[in-house]
Amino acid sequence: MKLAIKKHWGDVVAILALVVLAVVVAGYILNKERFHFPLIQSTPFEINAEFSTAQAVMPGQGQSVRVSGVQIGEIGAVSLQDGRAVVQLRISDTYKHLIHTDATALLRPRTGLKDMFVEVDPGSKTAPVAAPGFTIPVSNTSPDVNLDEVLSSLDTDTRAYLSLLVNGAGQGLKGNGGNELAQVLERFEPTHRDLARVSTAIALRANHLRRLVNSLQRLNTAVAAKQGQVTQLVDSSATVFRAFASEDRNVSTAIAELPGTLRQTTATLTQVQGLATQLGPAATHLLPAARALPSANAALTALSKPSAPIVQTQIRPFVIAAGPVVHDLRPASINLAKTAPNLQKTFGVLNHFVNMLGYSPGGVQHGYLWWLAWLGHNTRTLFSVQDANGPYRPLFIQFSCSQISTLTSPTSPFALVGSLLNLTPLRTACPGLAPLSAQIPTRQN
Prior knowledge:
Layout: H1 2-7, H2 9-32, E1 45-51, E2 64-67, E3 70-81, E4 84-91, E5 104-109, E6 116-121, E7 135-136, E8 141-142, H3 147-152, H4 156-173, H5 179-225, H6 227-246, H7 248-358, H8 368-382, E9 386-387, E10 390-391, E11 396-399, H9 401-408, H10 415-420, E12 436-439
Parallel strand pairs: 1-7, 2-6, 5-8
Antiparallel strand pairs: 1-4, 2-3, 3-4, 5-6, 9-10, 11-12
C-alpha cells in the first residue's frame, strides 16, 4: 500500500484535491440552498403564524421573514390545522429576542409573480418576549388579497361602473404619459390627508355615539325601575329649591363674602403647609422620645421619692446658708475672671517650657532633662574625690601609641615630657596603633 502510494503520489494528491474541491463546492451549494449545518450553524428560533390562507407560500424556496424591510429569517414548513394555514417562521438566533407576544404578521408578495414574504411587526416592548413554538393568532395576521377577490366582493352594477371607470381612465391617459397622472395624484395628497383625519374623527365619533346610546339605554332602564324614588327625589329637590329661594338674600350675601374668605383660607393654608412641612419631620424625630416617656417617668418617680427628703432637709438648708457666702464671693469671682486669661497664658508658657525640656526628637536624641541629669552627675563626680589634704580634681589625658612612642623615645626632643609624665611603662600596653588612655591624678587645693 505504501509502495503504491509512493509510486502514484501525484495521482493520490490529485484525487485528494478533487475530494476537497467537491466538499467545498457541495458545502457552497448547500449553503446557497439554505441547508442547515447542525454542528456549524446555530439552531434557528422557530415560531408559528396562523393565516386564513397561505396561497403561494412554498417552503424551502427562500421566502423571507422581514421586519421593516430587514430579513430576520425564512419561512419553514406550512401545515393545515382547523381550517387555518400555520406557517412556520424560522428566525435567526440573533433576532430571537425581537418578537413579542402581541406581534402581527402580514403575508405580502415581493413581485407580481407572487414571490411571497412575511412582514412582521415585533409588537410592543411591554409585552413578554415570544417563547419557542409561540403561535401568532389569526386575529393578528393578514393574508395576501388577490384582485379577483376584490372584484368578487362587488355587486354587478359596481363592477360595471368600475369597468367603465378603468376604460375611461385608460382612454384619458392614452398618449399623455404617467407624469400628468402623478401630478394629479400628488395634488390629491393634502385632500387625502384631510379626508383621513375626517374619517378618523367620524370613526371616533361613531364609537362615542354608540357608547352614549348604550349608556342612555342603561340609564333609562334604571330610572324606569326606580320611578318612585325619582318622584321622591324631584319632590325633595323642589323643597330644597324653595328653601334656597326663601334664603336668596342670605345666599347672595354669603356668596359676596366668599371670595375674601377663600383668599384668607388660601393664605392660612399656605402658612399651615409650611408648618406641616416642618412639623412632619419634627414629629417623626420626636416619636422615639415620646415612646421612651413612660419608662423615663417611671425612673424619675423612683428617683424623686427617695431624694425628696434629701432636697428638703439637706440641699435646701445648704443653699439658704450658702447664699451670703456666695454673695461675698462675687467680687472675688469677678476679679478672678479678669485674672484667668493672664493665668491661662502663664500656665501655657510654663507648659510649653516643660514640654521643651522633656522633648526627645525622634526618641533617639536626648532631651534637655537628660543632659541636666548628666551635668549634675558629672558635677557631683568632680567634687566627690578628696584625701587628707582636701578635694582634688580628676584629670583624663589620652595618648595614642604613636604619641607614647614619640614622648618616650630617648632621641625625641619631648623625652623630658615623657619622663615627667612617667609614660615609659605604657609602652608595653601598645602592641599596635590602638589609642590608650592614661589617668594621672593631679592635685588641686
